[in-house]
Please model this.
Amino acid sequence: MHQCYYCEQMFDTKEQLFEHVEVHSDMERNKEITERKKKEKEN
Model:
């Protein structure tokens, strides 16, 4: 069993875990991009 370190969800294989973690990393990336855009608008 493998556990996601973002949300603690459990997966049977590393492959499933890696696919799942990509969702979190995409969300983090999108969050950074939107925050950067907000800062640019403020300036």
